[in-house]
Design goal:
Elements lengths: L3 H4 L3 H8 L4 H11 L7 H13 L9 E5 L5 E5 L1 H9 L4 E11 L2 E11 L6 E6 H4 L4 H5 L1 H18 L7 H9 L18 H10 L23 H12 L1 H14 L17 H10 L5
Antiparallel strand pairs: 1-2, 3-4, 4-5
Helix pairs in contact: 2-3, 4-13, 5-8, 11-12, 11-13, 12-13
Length: 285
């Protein structure tokens, strides 16, 4: 078990084998054709983990990566990827679409998804006015784009798909630079952009603060953990030695993990750090 990290078949190796490719060639192909040019090894690892989790083919653009403003990447699921995830679900039992136009223009699209294990279908309505973007696909194929939106949102509700975004949502994440307020860190809206905060200040009056009595000798710290932390903890519960070896390996190879010795040293909020260690538990060199 001590050499488990080194002997387990790597994630890149498993994905490369699926496409009958050499692991090194596959990784280089992903870096050169799919990933942003400045993507780090940790970001490539996190991207491939999502692709493997949902059985997406990056080379067919079912899943791709957008560069975030200020650094980092955002993993994006294309419409073909969403359709693949939904129709491949073991409880999927069909879908229906209904369209409504007003004054000769698209107004809404209703998607209904049926599950084999429920007696009532899930229905979601998406409105053109809320979804439309000033882009070539929306301007030339508005009804098709609205149908895509309805399918994605209905799939989220029907099958509990969380943590996945489409291209329009990714552009929002990548184009808005987050700012941090200098006052109470629990202030709602602390990550709004400057334009958003200005718009709020003109349209809403500040709400009065809610006072909560807390014991002075028992301070409460709220920590928002990343998605990879929960998975890493699960692996830790199953086999502490694998995680321990992965942490040691990550500390030697990656700057984001330098100084780490045990699971208690890992920052549960650091997505890149947790993803790298989780990646190495599967034997990725």
């Amino acid at each position: 078990m001590a050499n488990e990290v080194a002997t387990k078949k790597s994630l890149t190796g498993m994905m490369a084998a699926k496409f009958d490719m050499d692991a090194t060639m596959f990784l280089n192909t992903i870096k050169n054709t799919v990933m942003p040019s400045k993507a780090s090894n940790e970001e490539v690892a996190a991207f491939l983990m999502v692709a493997k989790e949902y059985d997406m083919n990056p080379l067919l653009r079912e899943i791709h990566a957008f560069p975030k403003k200020g650094g980092g990447i955002q993993t994006v699921i294309g419409v073909d990827g969403w359709s693949k995830i939904i129709t491949r679900h073991r409880h999927f039992d069909g879908t229906e679409f209904a369209y409504e136009d007003k004054d000769g223009k698209p107004y809404s699209c209703t998607c209904t998804l049926y599950r084999k294990d429920t007696s009532h279908p899930v229905t979601v309505v998406e409105f053109y006015e809320e979804c439309h973007r000033n882009s070539e696909p929306w301007n030339t194929m508005p009804r098709r784009m609205l149908r895509h939106k309805a399918l994605m949102q209905c799939g989220r509700v029907a099958f509990g798909l969380s943590g996945l975004v489409d291209e329009d949502e990714a552009k929002d994440f990548c184009e808005v630079e987050a700012t941090v307020l200098e006052d109470d860190p629990l202030t709602p809206g602390r990550h709004e952009s400057k334009s958003q905060k200005k718009r709020v200040s003109l349209s809403k009056k500040p709400e009065p603060a809610i006072e909560v009595d807390m014991p002075k000798d028992e301070p409460v710290e709220q920590v928002k953990t990343c998605d990879a932390w929960a998975k890493l903890c699960k692996v830790q519960d199953e086999d502490e030695e694998i995680v321990s070896n992965a942490i040691k390996s990550a500390a030697e190879k990656y700057d984001s993990c330098k100084g780490l010795k045990t699971i208690t040293d890992v920052d549960p909020r650091n997505q890149a750090q947790c993803s790298t260690i989780l990646f190495l538990t599967e034997g990725v060199e």
